[in-house]
Please model this.
Amino acid sequence: MKPWPKVRLGDVLTPTERVEIVDASKEYRLLGIRLDGQGPFLRETVLGTQTSATKLFRVAEGDFIYSRLFACRGAFGVVTEELDGCYVSGEFPAFVPVPGKVDVGFLKYWFRLPSVVATVDADCSGSTPLTRNRFKENFFLALEIPLPPLAEQRRMVARIEELATQSHEARTLRHQAAEEAERLMAGAERKLWPDEGLQHAPHLARLTTFLARGKQSEQGESEHFLIKTQHVQQNRYLPTLLRLAPHVVPKVKREAIVREGDILIACSAAGCLGRVARYRSDGRTASTDTHIAVL
Model:
């Protein structure tokens, strides 16, 4: 297949500024932009007397906007119909597509690509995270995007959104199934371990020689492996490929290193609380993070 031609964003987007001088008696719906390509949202509604800005910028449905300060974290998106007529500060540049050139939905998904966010991050990195430079419009407009014909862009956007809808429906069904399973399990557990049968049961502290959560979780490239909640399925341990950072390995206490037959318990992570699995050693040194207890 012939590669798509690369074009500069400046060739397919036009900067726009709909400036309004702030009126003390008027209400303004102000937008923010979520990270990771999740787009703009209504942040708050304020009176003109409640903002220190002397001017604001009105956005319209179909505008492509981004946050100068948080572009490096994927703060890009498209103004939707329900956000039409909202306002942003000068820190949120807005652009309108050149007719017949680009679909803003295609741009929205392109800016979610890790490689694109990495390019943006490289353009706006300061000497430290606290001195990070803002992503100025000249960098934005100079970005090059591989661009198929408009009809193909729209076909791809439609397909992505179709898959997203199916994914959402699948997640809803999984959630409903999990709730039903939890209800059924709760009833079964009450039969196996009625409250009166647990009144004089021994505590785990009496039945184990060690019971504690892991403490170190910073990842790196050491030969010490890290076990997280994703590796503890019910009655099944999934071998981890994650590794601890070399400088935190010496901080792991000897007794916290997992051994063959240890019991792993997911004890604080939402969605997997209470999963229990027996650790099966594969000869590698490993320990858990703060969400997994070892006994």
About this structure: Residues 207-294 form a domain with the Adenine-n6-DNA-methyltransferase TaqI; Chain A, domain 2 fold (CATH 3.90.220.20).
